[in-house]
UniProtKB/TrEMBL annotation:
It comes from the Eukaryota. Gene3D superfamilies: Tie2 ligand-binding domain superfamily. This is Putative angiopoietin-1 receptor isoform X2. Keywords: Receptor.
Length: 297
């Protein structure tokens, strides 16, 4: 509250020009990649549906370490400050879950991720992967070049281990091919015995019930750079550089429009635009705007 008036929270829009609000609950991660000596990251749990929750609870399931974390409340919704513990620094990494608990109605769950800064466990900016069946009600996945998860190959990949929940050694090597909706779940990729010291990353595979091309197009435009007002968040960048947006199942976690990479801080290469730089500019417009694409006014 400033001068007796309440500062409005950041707006979210269903298209790059910000014409209409998108309703829902979103977790925003500032600095989704942390080095061993870096001090702090923030996770914000922001309401965009107009529903007031009585409580937002953050918890962390690290795959290797499980703990409860403290929450705070400010003008931008509930937030979690992830500091640098004196011991067991690896406990900062993993999956964070935010539960929105309204006065009435169902509990809403959203999640976010924090990874270690390491070349061996480089997932190329992938935090979640959404897959869908070839036919409604089936288990075999529809054909897609994105039906895999993994890390960039390096000599250190010879010592990595894969877990899915409590299942160990579910894969060997840097890449796992996804073939069935049964492959959905949270995967932990860790560096052998060093995993207990924090050298691990997690990727959540989400199985949609049907192909959702329109919904996928929707999320590709859901974080327009001018609509989000990321600069309103403490330490925020006006163009949302360095922020990971997690919108729950089906949509997963993605960088804001115009950015990609593990830390959401790499500009789109020429010819790409949109969320995670996943949209291609038309062939004759290789210089289209990386935030808004070829339709920028």
């Amino acid at each position: 509250m400033v001068g007796g008036s309440i500062i409005p929270p950041p707006r979210f829009a269903i298209n790059a020009n910000g014409h209409a609000p998108a309703k829902g609950e979103v977790v925003i991660v500032n600095s989704p990649v942390l080095g061993r000596a870096e001090n702090i990251a923030y996770l914000y749990a922001i309401h965009t549906s107009g529903i007031e929750s009585d409580v937002v609870e953050f918890s962390k399931q690290g795959g290797l370490v499980s703990q409860t974390v403290k929450t705070g409340d400010d003008l931008f919704g509930y937030y979690l400050s992830v500091g640098l513990p004196n011991r067991h620094r690896g406990t900062r990494y993993g999956t964070y879950t935010a539960q929105y608990i309204p006065g009435d109605g169902p509990v809403i769950t959203r999640y976010g991720f924090i990874k270690p800064k390491t070349s061996v466990l480089d997932t190329r900016g992938v935090y979640t992967r959404t897959v869908w069946p070839a036919v409604p009600g089936g288990t075999r996945l529809a054909s897609s070049p994105d039906n895999y998860i993994g890390v960039r190959w390096s000599p250190g990949c010879r010592s990595i281990q894969w877990c899915k929940g409590k299942q160990r050694n579910v894969n060997t090597g840097p890449r796992l091919q996804l073939t069935s909706t049964d492959d959905a779940g949270c995967y932990t990729i860790r560096r052998g015995k060093r995993g207990a010291r924090g050298w691990f990353v997690q990727i959540k595979v989400i199985a949609a019930k049907v192909d959702i091309p329109k919904s996928r197009d929707f999320v590709l435009a859901v974080v327009g750079a001018s609509a989000l007002r990321c600069g309103d968040l403490p330490g925020g960048n006006p163009k949302c550089r360095g922020y990971l947006f997690c919108m729950g199942d089906l949509y997963g976690c993605k960088c804001a429009s115009g950015w990609w990479g593990n830390n959401c801080d790499r500009p789109c290469p020429k010819g790409k635009w949109g969320v995670d730089c996943s949209q291609r500019c038309p062939d004759r417009q290789l210089d289209c705007d990386r935030f808004f694409g070829p339709d920028k006014n």
